[in-house]
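User: My instructor asked us to take a sequence, write out its structure as tokens, and then describe one feature of it. I'm not sure where to start. Here is the sequence I was given:
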Amino acid sequence: ILNSMMIPTVKTITNVSRFQGRALSHFLTASRSLSNETNIDHEHYKGAWKTYGDIENYVPGKYQIQTFNKISPRGLQRFDGENFDVRVDGEEAANAHAILLRSHKLKEEEVAHTVRAIARCGAGTNNIPVARMTEIGIPVFNTPGANANAVKELVSCGMLLASRRIVDGVNHMKDLGSQGLAKERVEKDKSMFGGREIKGKTLAVIGLGHIGGMTALGASALGMNVVGYDPSLSVESALRLPGDITLLDSISSAVSKADYISLNIPYIKGEDGTHGIINQDVIDQFKSDAVLLNFARGELVDSEAMKNFLDRGNGRYVSDFPDDLLWNHKNTIILPHLGASTEEAEDTAAAMAADTVKDYLENGTIRNSVNFPATSLPDPEKNSIRFTIVNKNLPGMLAQITETFANAAFNITQQINHSRGEIAYNVLDVDMEGHDDVVSFKKVQKQITMLDGVLSSRILYGKPGFGYAKNIEGKYFV
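Assistant: Let's start with the prediction itself. The structure tokens for your sequence are:
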């Protein structure tokens, strides 16, 4: 019964006349199939052509996944072909139900009305307008920890590069080789590149999440003394740290005796953000030969203050972010942005993003979201249907939602309601007993969706791509 419950909506036709007759006929036929006895109101579909898309390329009965950038094929294989239609970067995807991306800077106009979720194959979400997606009720997911080992290994590499002047030595040997002097000078010139071992030295880890925790563990295994600072350290993250780590109460106290400093914190703009958090006051606490390893974000470091530090001592700066002021300094090593650029990390991040999106689309589960509350409900009981509802976090919203179900004679068998900031998310399972007609489900969904404060709703009943409704500025979009 429910397989014909919703008409899939598609986005943006540029030449309406080419499709209009066939599409409108298909649309009305499908609508009439909902019930032979009930007069279905089509008024809320008026003007909908402007939000319709490429009907020739639309595959009904499948979730359409739009991708930006080159996403790992191994990760995309998590979307089974029976239920998912994956469109790789560059392919038409005007009717997308979800978006996967890496570094592409997503614009709001690229997010179709049909999009239910966005997932970043990586930890940072600075390239996604998260605040705006929250306003329109779209969860944004990331993949924390997927690239942690790759970045940790690069941090370890950075310590070795800075400790032994390896890059300078490589360039020197290339220069000698071009002159035919490499064999003659290989022993004589090695004293130019003397260094130090990292065993027994102190590493300060600023930020002890997935990457910081693995960096601390790796350094401890190499025989280093590890200190750390993280004002938001969770119990879960604390349990992953080495037992001999010393936790300190400020960045300045952490860096003051460190030979190496690893930055592993997010970049946050605005007041009380992390822009330039490694400033002159912090750098003044550095040892004269300290090595700063920044594989987090370039904007975390005050470039002027870092240049002053490098000019006056034997310190080092190693990063995989470009810096117009520091790139050519003799004590700086600037790499391409290689932190997560390993085959393993890209596979893991893509698979994790795909699994997260699948779980949300199919079950309504929220995990690893940067703007929605973590939410999970056990599988629905037999003969029940799952609704999910996104609404503004306003007083009385849950009461209005449950009252609407009660007025329609629907019995709620289980439910969960969580909020995060200005957004609230509900998952409810309702008993189908006494509701063997599609129209009653459609009616209650419309009533709930059009409540003041509700942003969108979904009915999850096994038909991929169907059952989605939005309240767009007081208009009902299905």
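For the description part of your assignment, you could build on this observation: Confidence is low (pLDDT under 50) at residues 1-52. Try explaining in your own words what that tells you about the chain.
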